[in-house]
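tool=predict chain=A
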Amino acid sequence: RGRRGRPWLSPPGSLALSLILRPPLAYLPRLVMASSLAVLRAIETFPPLRAGIKWPNDVLIGGKKACGILIESHLKADRVEFAIVGIGLNVNVDPAFLANLPFPATSLSAELGSQLSRLEVMCRLLEAMEPLYLALKGGQDPLAEWRQRLETLGQRVRIEGEETSMEGVAEGVGPDGSLRLRLDEGTLRPVVVGDVSLRPA
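tool=predict ok
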């Protein structure tokens, strides 16, 4: 499933997997950063593919969505019992299927012009995730690299929540990963990860 209980489409040719991790509580907010960077790094092992991140948890190729990430966690007192990182990556999805979606989407095979082994893609994803996760548990912060790969920054966007919507320019991200949205009247508004969806305005 997608964020906020929305359905998630996993057509033939896609790669859908869940990783169960147990990070320290202090680093739980950084897990989405490490996960999206892992997907990005894995994609870029197939040249000439280049990827970017749409805040907070989508991976894009050429401005089109290729991957979505959903993280759900269970806490007990001050400890993370577990965190489930759900990753849906379009590997060999038929472009005809993607053309029917309400948002621009693509797949690795559509961009490369040839199909890939989903097993190989999964292995490269796990190989990319391991050092990022171990570095996170060791206290290394992925924020700087994640911020550098955000394609959202500098763009005019529309933020839609369950009860409110806002429009403005995405100026940056805070230390906690929240988006800094400059509203039209000049106010700088923090937008917390997980509370909203983001669409180009």
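Residues 118-137 form the longest helix (20 residues). The radius of gyration is 17 Å.
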